[in-house]
Each structure stands twice: as structure tokens, then as C-alpha cells.
Design goal:
Blueprint lengths: L1 H14 L3 H15 L14 H14 L4 H14 L7 H19 L5 H24 L5 E11 L4 E8 L11 E6 L3 E9 L9 E7 L5 H8 L6 E5 L14 E7 L3 H11 L8 E7 L8 H10 L3 E7 L8 E2 L2 H6 L7 E8 H13 L7 E6 L3
Parallel strand pairs: 7-8, 7-11, 8-9, 9-10, 11-12
Antiparallel strand pairs: 1-2, 1-6, 2-5, 3-4, 3-6
Helix pairs in contact: 1-6, 2-3, 2-5, 4-6, 5-6
């Protein structure tokens, strides 16, 4: 695996700057050779092209960790059942992907690279197929919207209940959501914002991102009574109940969702671990969930909340970027750390934690920015 991983990374370095070209050629070849597959994809492909490369990059990042590599791919296989993917589709996708990589690599694409990607894709597809076959749950759940509340211009908090079958998940995980009424066959991932309940109610926090098709529908269009589809839960930003380390949570904007779920789970059993939540935004409007956090802190002495704003002159609390605020406190070396927010925010927090010499094994994070 070590030599294969090295060759794959070397070949990816050759073509990674041509991501748009790879994605465009991949879908063109896939649909031209297998026109029946087009119906499995959304009518509007804007943003969909990036999904292929996100999966490739994520797989590349786990190559050096066989256990994480296996877990990621099995989860990906389970998740792809929502697209009605069957075993025979994997060979079609593999052929189109290899052709796209060869085209992007041009004369510098070697036989060694080609064989490495063939071997890697065979292993990837085998693990994904196995993950899909081993999952006893349905490919997706139908869910009814129960409540919907706007929190400012671009943010909504809504709840829904899965119908027919309970949706099992752990606090900190995320699911893919489809809005069949407005954006059929277009799925985007969102973290669940509450710990599991007996009533099987799930809460979500969504920000409408630009012209995002799904996020705009979830914020501006859906209402109680509407039906959604939820795919199988994924993600490993979950609590280790065997750990006795104190906990640091850092949330930016709607990155609060999984952090809130983790805190709710802790309220069910925690008695000995101090929990520090840093919640930041550009302005006070982005601190939409402070009331609920303060209520939890009032009921649980081990929980502390520290909000901050980076550009709001009227805010009387901590000022500055979230990473700057976090750096004023600590040290965090002996904490389990959970980070959730935009990709730039997460990167800055991870740099701060590295400066505090927090072991990478003690850090779990999610990035937001879905369309």
C-alpha cells in the first residue's frame, strides 16, 4: 500500500491543477458511453462536478491510514445507495475516471500511473460495494418537516421526523438531504444539530450559500408538512465516552450544529469533564444560537460559553477572529477538541491547536460550505 500510495499521490500532483478539466471530461465520457446513467444525476449539474473531486481528494488523504481508508470508503458506498448505484455502475465510473486522468496527464501520464489507478480503483470499488451490501438500513429515509424558523436573513433552523423507520445516528454526525419538491436528485450534506431522541426528531441549521440550490430551498422555501429525503448518517466527529479529558468545542456560524448536538449528548451523562464552547461570527446576527447555549450552561456547571465577533463594533464580548480569541485561552494540550465551521475558519483553528501542541489524534473537525 505504501508504494501504491506514493505513486497515486505523485500522479495526482501532476493533474490536480486541472480539476475542472478532469471533472468535465469524466462526466462527458460517462454520459456519452452510458447515457442511461444521466437520469441518476440532477438536471442542474452546477456544483455536482466538484463532488467527484472532493471524493477523490478525501480518499487520497486517507491512503496512509488503512483503517480510516476502509471506514471512509465503506461509508461512501453506503451513502451512494441514495443515488440508486448498483454494482455494475462501478466499472462504468472507473473507465470514465481513468480516461479523464489520462487526458489531463497527457504525455506525462505513465503506464505506472495507469496501473496504480486501476489497482486503487479496484480496491476502492470493492470496499464501497461491501459497505453498501453490509448496511441493513434503507438507502434513504423520508422525513416530514415539523418546524421551520428563520434566524436572520440567510439562516434557518428546522426540525423533521423520519417516517416509517427510525434513523439511527450519533451526535456530531451529518446526513445528506434532498428536497424532492424543489431540487430532485440534488443532495447536500448537513450536520444534525441535536442528540438522538426517542421521538426520532432531527434538527438542522442551514445557511443559504449564494445561489446554492439546496441550501436556498431549505432556508427560503420549505415549510412544515413538506417532505425531505435523508441519507444514511456519516462522519466521525463523535464523542469518545471512555476519554476523561476535558473538551474544547469551536464553532463558527452554522458550524454550531454538530457542536450543539455533542453538548446535548454530554448533558445526558457527563459529570466530571469541563466543556468549553467558543462560538464566533462576523457579527452578532451570526451568533443565532446563543440563547440555547446559555440555557444549557445555566443547567450544567461544567459547561462554559464564550462568544466572539470579528467585525461588529457594537458587540461587548470578545473581539477578533475565532482563532485569535482561542489563542488567548488554554492551553488545550490535554483536551479533546472538536472544530466545526467554514473551511478557512477550520484551517485557522487547526493551526492554533498545532501551536498549542494538541496531538492530532485528539482533534476532530467538520467543514461547512455546501451549496
Amino acid at each position: 500500500m505504501d508504494n501504491l500510495a506514493q505513486v497515486l499521490k505523485e500522479s495526482w500532483t501532476l493533474v490536480e491543477e486541472d480539476r475542472d478539466k478532469i471533472a468535465g471530461h469524466f462526466y462527458a465520457r460517462l454520459f456519452l458511453s452510458n447515457p442511461q446513467l444521466r437520469q441518476l444525476f440532477p438536471v442542474q449539474m452546477t456544483g455536482q462536478r466538484d463532488r467527484l473531486l472532493e471524493a477523490v481528494i478525501s480518499a487520497m488523504q486517507t491512503l496512509d491510514d488503512p483503517e480510516r481508508f476502509d471506514e471512509f470508503l465503506r461509508g461512501l458506498g453506503r451513502d451512494h445507495r441514495k443515488y440508486h448505484v448498483s454494482r455494475e455502475h462501478y466499472a462504468m465510473v472507473g473507465e470514465a475516471l481513468l480516461t479523464a486522468l489520462r487526458t489531463a496527464g497527457g504525455d506525462q501520464w505513465t503506464i505506472e500511473y495507469d496501473h496504480a489507478w486501476q489497482d486503487a480503483y479496484a480496491a476502492i470499488s470493492e470496499k464501497m460495494i461491501a459497505g453498501a451490501a453490509d448496511d441493513p438500513n434503507p438507502p434513504f429515509w423520508h422525513a416530514e418537516v415539523l418546524t421551520h424558523e428563520r434566524r436572520g436573513r440567510d439562516v434557518a433552523v428546522f426540525t423533521c421526523r423520519a417516517l416509517q423507520y427510525p434513523l439511527p445516528y450519533r451526535a456530531g454526525q451529518y446526513v445528506s438531504i434532498e428536497v424532492p419538491r424543489y431540487q430532485p436528485r440534488l443532495w447536500r450534506t448537513y450536520s444534525i444539530a441535536n442528540a438522538p431522541t426517542e421521538e426520532n426528531v432531527l434538527e438542522f441549521h442551514v445557511r443559504a450559500v449564494g445561489a446554492g440550490w439546496v441550501s436556498s430551498s431549505l432556508v427560503r422555501k420549505i415549510k412544515p408538512g413538506d417532505l425531505l429525503r435523508l441519507a444514511a448518517p456519516m462522519g466521525t466527529m463523535t464523542l469518545d465516552r471512555k476519554s476523561n479529558r476535558d473538551i474544547l468545542c469551536v464553532a463558527g456560524g452554522v458550524g454550531l450544529a454538530p457542536i450543539k448536538a455533542l453538548v446535548e449528548e454530554l448533558t445526558l451523562y457527563n459529570r466530571t469533564r469541563w466543556v468549553h464552547v467558543f462560538f464566533g461570527g462576523h457579527s452578532q446576527d451570526e451568533l443565532y444560537g446563543l440563547t440555547e447555549l446559555y440555557q444549557l450552561a445555566a443547567e450544567h456547571p461544567w459547561l462554559s460559553i464564550l462568544p466572539s465577533c470579528s467585525v461588529d463594533d457594537e458587540f461587548t464580548g470578545e473581539r477578533g477572529d475565532l482563532a485569535e480569541v482561542l489563542a488567548r485561552y488554554g492551553p488545550w494540550t490535554a483536551h479533546d477538541c472538536f472544530v466545526s465551521g467554514s473551511a478557512p475558519m477550520v484551517r485557522s483553528i487547526l493551526r492554533t491547536l498545532a501551536q498549542h501542541e494538541v496531538p492530532p489524534a485528539n482533534i476532530r473537525y467538520d467543514t461547512f460550505g455546501d451549496l
